[in-house]
């Protein structure tokens, strides 16, 4: 079982310096986090390292802190704590790093990496003073890289990093403090250029590896097995406030602990982020948290859980809510959204707290009226409607609904006709689809030929449901038999998926005034140069390319890139600079390079993909448009599954389990001498883990996977293992 180690750093008191004043809630943040770890997660105290600097006149817990062995968060002590945890932890252990204090920018001491006149993003230790050390992004990158690198180069730890601090800028407000420099300006003093983290050559080399040799900003290690959650974007500030009406805390830390203690477990970092975003923006509209890395990982865990994307409630007023999506996201008046508790399964309609209908539209936000039970069929739970709730589109307005025609074929032997036996069944089969469509807010049926339909549903010559858009749509697998009672509902799901894909694909605004505000081009992987013919780009499966963005306007812009893959009608987001938040904030004059990987879907010779760039001035949540592949089935919980434990080992992982048939137990006599398969008709997809791609282990994979295949064949399983390396 993996161990859990935490490094908690909180700094209220700073030694006198010209840039950073004292704070009031940073140490309280650390105490709040430590209390949660010890009481809720049962983490042993000896596995939690605390570095705190309380205000001298409020240090009522001095004896307690001394007894716990808390050290002051000096530059040397912070680095030593990083190194100590890295040495203690074993491969696969969980590490959590939380910093509450000042953050800022300082003249870079790495001009060969950043460029002359640029800055290092930094954390401010308590002993910064007039001539002390910052903990710079280049140093943090090496400290994290040592933790997250594969075991042959580092420790292979699973790391979460949370910084409740500013990147730059700051001022004092009436209701709290800003965690940044006093005047918002970078520190331009000559600071020490040596480092206790590593020698200069190692720091420079690691930074170049991490940033792919581009002059980017940030302290991001590789994006496997880590999560970074920051209090704000580079151009914003991190606020302190008295959220409970008593003592100050950092906004990010307060709402994080509030979420973890008030919402049922099993949250992913993406779900946590969405609630934090709503809560923080409801009070501080200019502070938007940022999420990088594995957003689909469970909070403080090592398991991955599929992410359900949605819009987020960012403001609540009597009888209405404000959502973080508007005209830029393709919304229109009349669109209805279901509001769910944080962490809910959106397929469980019983969990809905209310239904809201869009009544007012702005560029990137919208106002929605809470509907009555007579209007929506849902009795609104008013006292539970609050910022941070997920909002899932439930019913599209009439102009966005997709029209479906249910088509009866003639009897005959041609491809577009049916044999008599199927022709006799088609009316009843299509009626079942009609009944399922009546309860769906995305689809509407058209009859006759007066109105054009987006899709046509008919019966194929093999007795399967057939969806056409001009011609039958390919890759709708598995085939849906008209004799399967679950098929009509699945047909409707596929129609909704296709409709959502085409609605998102149609989003466009060629007359936008931002057309000349940004440079956007695709570059090759070798020289990072534009392709010779940008209108006819051809890549081999497995090739990589770069997207270059540059803000050439005089204001910050929020951008997002969506990748449309039509083979399986999939929409994914391409994280810019690794940022998995709803958008990336591109500052004036800033340029980014985002590396992309292109792969032809299995079973296809080629595919055409479209990258769409969305640019707005305001909030830009396009994640709710994300769609999984159309053939991806929902993972169902298996009652019990026996696979030989010595086959599993550590060389591969179970990726997906799906079924369209009822579960039924093996009725044969159980042989106690070997594992048995209790569930039939399950399809298993097994993939090799990237960390085991060496030749020797690759050969072991084939032996192991063939053994499982042989085992299942002996058990006469109706589905055979499909495996790929």
TrEMBL record:
InterPro entries: Metacaspase, Pept_C14_caspase
Disordered as annotated region, ranges: 172-193
One GO MF term: cysteine-type endopeptidase activity
Entries under Pfam families matching the protein: Peptidase_C14
Residue intervals of the Peptidase C14 caspase domain: 5-290
PANTHER family: METACASPASE-1, METACASPASE-4
Protein name: Caspase family protein
Organism field: Hassallia byssoidea VB512170
């Amino acid at each position: 079982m993996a161990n859990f180690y935490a490094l908690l750093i909180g700094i209220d008191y700073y030694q006198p310096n010209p840039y950073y004043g004292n704070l009031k809630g940073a140490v309280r943040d650390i105490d709040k986090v430590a209390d949660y770890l010890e009481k809720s997660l049962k983490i042993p105290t000896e596995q939690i390292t605390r570095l705190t600097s309380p205000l001298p006149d409020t240090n009522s817990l001095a004896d307690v802190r001394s007894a716990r062995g808390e050290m002051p968060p000096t530059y040397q002590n912070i680095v030593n704590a990083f190194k100590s945890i890295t040495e203690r932890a074993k491969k696969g252990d969980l590490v959590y790093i939380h910093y509450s204090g000042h953050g800022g920018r300082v003249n870079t001491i790495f001009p060969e990496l950043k460029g002359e006149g640029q800055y290092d993003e930094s954390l401010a230790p308590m002993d910064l003073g007039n001539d002390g050390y910052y903990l710079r992004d280049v140093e943090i990158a090496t400290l994290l890289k040592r933790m997250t690198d594969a075991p042959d180069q580092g420790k292979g730890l699973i790391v979460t990093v949370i910084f409740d601090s500013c990147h730059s800028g700051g001022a004092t407000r009436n209701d709290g403090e800003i965690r940044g420099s006093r005047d918002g300006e970078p520190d331009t003093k000559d600071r020490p250029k040596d480092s206790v983290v590593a020698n200069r050559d190692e720091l420079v080399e690691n930074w170049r590896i991490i940033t792919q040799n581009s002059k980017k900003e940030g302290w991001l290690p590789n994006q496997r097995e880590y999560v970074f959650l920051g209090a704000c974007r580079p151009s914003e500030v991190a606020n302190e406030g008295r959220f409970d009406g008593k003592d100050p805390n950092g906004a990010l830390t307060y709402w994080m602990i509030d979420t973890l203690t008030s919402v049922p477990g099993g949250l992913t970092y993406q779900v946590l982020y969405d609630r934090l975003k709503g809560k923080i923006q409801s009070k501080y509209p200019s502070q938007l948290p940022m999420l990088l890395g594995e957003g689909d990982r469970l909070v403080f865990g090592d398991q991955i859980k599929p992410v359900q994307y949605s819009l987020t409630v960012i403001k609540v007023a009597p009888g209405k809510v404000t959502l973080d999506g508007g005209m830029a996201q393709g919304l229109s008046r009349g669109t209805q959204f279901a509001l769910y508790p944080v962490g809910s399964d959106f397929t469980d309609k019983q969990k809905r707290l209310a239904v809201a209908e869009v009544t007012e539209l702005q560029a990137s936000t919208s106002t929605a009226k809470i509907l009555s039970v007579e209007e929506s069929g849902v009795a609104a739970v008013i006292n539970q409607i609050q910022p941070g709730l997920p909002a899932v589109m439930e019913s599209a307005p009439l102009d966005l609904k997709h029209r479906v025609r249910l088509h009866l074929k003639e009897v005959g032997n041609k491809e577009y006709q049916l044999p008599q036996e199927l022709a006799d069944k088609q009316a009843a089969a299509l009626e079942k689809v009609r009944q399922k469509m009546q309860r769906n807010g995305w689809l509407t049926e058209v009859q006759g030929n007066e109105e054009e339909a987006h899709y046509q549903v008919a019966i194929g010559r093999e007795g399967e449901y057939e969806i056409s858009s001009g011609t039958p749509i390919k890759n709708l697998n598995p085939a849906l038999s008209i004799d399967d009672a679950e098929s009509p509902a699945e047909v409707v799901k596929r129609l909704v998926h296709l409709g959502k894909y085409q609605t998102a694909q149609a989003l466009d605004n060629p007359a936008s005034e931002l057309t000349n505000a940004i440079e956007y081009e695709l570059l090759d992987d070798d020289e990072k140069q534009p392709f010779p013919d940008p209108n006819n780009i051809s890549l081999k499966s497995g090739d990589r390319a770069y997207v270059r963005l540059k803000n050439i306007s005089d204001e910050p812009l929020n951008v997002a890139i969506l990748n449309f893959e039509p083979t399986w009608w999939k929409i994914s987001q391409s994280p810019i600079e690794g940022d998995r938040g709803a958008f990336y904030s591109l500052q004036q004059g800033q340029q980014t390079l985002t590396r992309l990987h292109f792969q032809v879907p299995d079973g296809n010779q080629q595919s055409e993909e479209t990258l769409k760039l969305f640019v707005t001035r305001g909030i830009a949540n396009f994640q709710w448009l994300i769609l999984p592949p159309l053939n991806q089935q929902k993972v169902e919980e298996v009652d019990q599954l026996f696979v030989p434990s010595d086959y599993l080992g550590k060389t591969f992982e179970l990726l997906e389990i799906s079924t369209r048939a009822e579960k039924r137990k093996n009725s044969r006599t159980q042989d106690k001498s070997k594992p048995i398969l209790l569930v039939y008709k399950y399809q298993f997809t097994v993939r090799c883990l990237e960390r085991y791609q060496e030749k020797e282990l690759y050969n072991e994979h084939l032996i192991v996977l063939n053994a499982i295949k042989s085992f299942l064949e002996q058990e006469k399983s109706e589905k055979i293992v499909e495996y790929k390396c």
